[in-house]
């Protein structure tokens, strides 16, 4: 058995998770504590890096203590510490990396600095078991990526990514246009349940025959929603928030799932993994299931609490790396806000 404590501070959630990996390679989630500073950012309409960093400083030690208590463990029981080394907000990452170094040194255990995106893939293993080679769609406030993942330890091959706004960023901006609170994703999802997804035909970005097959663009969609809302306001017509939300959401999920299924078929992968904060969206999960089933693909989606940023995903990836004998990171491990997805483990 290997017990790994994982720390996640890439944005506005302070996450501490503990995963136990059996000798057979089966991951078990023992604790997943999250302290979110989202309410502190809501009045600004988005995440403020300095506010996030200070919130991580305040939440880190209590979150670690809660995770150990939930798991029924002491620091001496931990065999390794894993931490998100990037990508993310520089100041926020530094808090987590510094804390992880301190705990690893104090407990005299190995340290694993891991990639945030690869961790979003790894977290599925604590719910659905070991992951076969998979095509991963990761969608969040900062990322919309299609990745070929033959193994959690890497190498990970990027097939496509957003060229402008990420999906989660587009949700936040459209929510603001509709007068909905921050973060926008859950509120758009809620409003869309009472709307007609076919009420307004919004554009599907980068879906033309000459466009990049697996890249994403949501900037034009966001602009189309803004123009639609502005036209209604000029005409003095009430904005049908539910219909706009449903139609916008349908455009996003249509493009995401269509490109994912095509990529899985082209690259001969039978398993599709959906991860990242936007993976908690009910329509995206529903459409992905429908299209994967129709294409004969197996879909794996973690439960919503594991889709958003959390420490369990970092612990899961760290546990896999430790189990497979990966060389740990050095204590001079840097925080890299622009860490490339191809680098699963940062050694120093």
Describe this structure in words.
The protein is α/β, with parallel strands linked by helices and 348 residues long. It contains 12 helices and 11 strands. The protein has helices spanning 38-42, 49-71, 90-107, 116-122, 125-128, 167-177, 184-192, 219-234, 241-266, 282-294, 304-307, 311-323; strands spanning 2-8, 13-21, 27-36, 80-86, 111-115, 134-139, 144-149, 157-161, 271-275, 298-300, 345-346. Strands 3-2-1-4-5-11 form a 6-stranded mixed sheet, with helices on both faces. The protein has a 5-stranded mixed sheet with strand order 8-7-6-9-10, with helices on both faces. Helix 2 (49-71) runs parallel beside helix 3. The longest helix is centred in the C-terminal third of the chain and has 26 residues, at 241-266. The two termini are 26 Å apart.
Q: What letter string, H or E per element, gives the SSE order? A: EEEHHEHEHHEEEHHHHEHEHHE
Widest sheet: strand ordering: 3-2-1-4-5-11
Low-confidence stretches: none
How would the global form be characterised? globular
Question: Pairing-aware structural class of the strands and helices?
Answer: alpha/beta
Helix count?
A: 12
On the 0-100 scale, what is the average pLDDT? 96
Q: Strand-residue fraction?
A: 15-25%
Major sheet attributes: 6 strands, mixed
User: N- to C-terminal separation?
Assistant: 26 Å
Tally the beta strands: 11
Radius of gyration (Å): 20 Å
Helicity level: 40-55%
């Amino acid at each position: 058995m290997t017990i790994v404590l994982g720390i996640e501070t890439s944005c506005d959630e302070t996450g501490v998770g503990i995963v136990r990996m059996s000798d057979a390679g089966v991951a078990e989630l023992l604790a997943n504590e999250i302290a979110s500073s989202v309410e502190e950012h809501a009045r600004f309409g988005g995440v403020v890096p300095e506010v996030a960093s200070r919130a991580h400083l305040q939440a880190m030690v209590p979150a670690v203590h809660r995770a150990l208590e939930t798991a029924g463990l002491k620091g001496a029981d931990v065999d390794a510490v894993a931490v998100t080394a990037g990508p993310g907000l520089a100041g926020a990452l530094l808090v987590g990396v510094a804390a992880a170094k301190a705990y690893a040194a104090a407990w005299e255990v190995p340290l694993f600095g891991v990639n945030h995106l690869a961790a979003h893939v790894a977290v599925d293993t604590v719910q659905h078991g070991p992951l076969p080679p998979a095509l991963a769609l990761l969608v969040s406030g900062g990322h919309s990526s299609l990745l070929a993942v033959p193994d959690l330890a890497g190498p990970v091959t990027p097939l496509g990514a957003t060229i402008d706004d990420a999906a989660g960023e587009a949700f936040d901006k459209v929510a603001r246009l509709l007068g909905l609170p921050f973060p926008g994703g859950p509120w758009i999802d809620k409003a869309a349940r009472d709307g007609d997804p076919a009420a307004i035909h919004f554009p599907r970005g980068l879906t033309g025959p000459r466009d990049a097959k697996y890249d994403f663009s949501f900037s034009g969609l966001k602009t189309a929603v803004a123009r639609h809302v502005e036209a209604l306001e000029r005409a003095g017509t009430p904005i049908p928030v539910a219909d706009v939300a449903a139609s916008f959401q349908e455009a996003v999920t249509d493009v995401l799932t269509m490109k994912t299924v095509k990529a899985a078929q082209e690259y001969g992968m039978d398993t599709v993994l959906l991860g990242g904060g936007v993976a908690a969206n009910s329509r995206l999960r529903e459409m992905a299931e429908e299209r994967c089933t129709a294409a004969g693909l197996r879909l794996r989606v973690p439960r919503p609490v594991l889709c958003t940023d959390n420490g369990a995903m970092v612990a899961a990836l760290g546990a896999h790396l430790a189990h497979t004998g990966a060389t740990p990171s050095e204590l001079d491990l840097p925080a890299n806000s622009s860490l490339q997805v191809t680098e699963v483990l940062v050694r120093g």
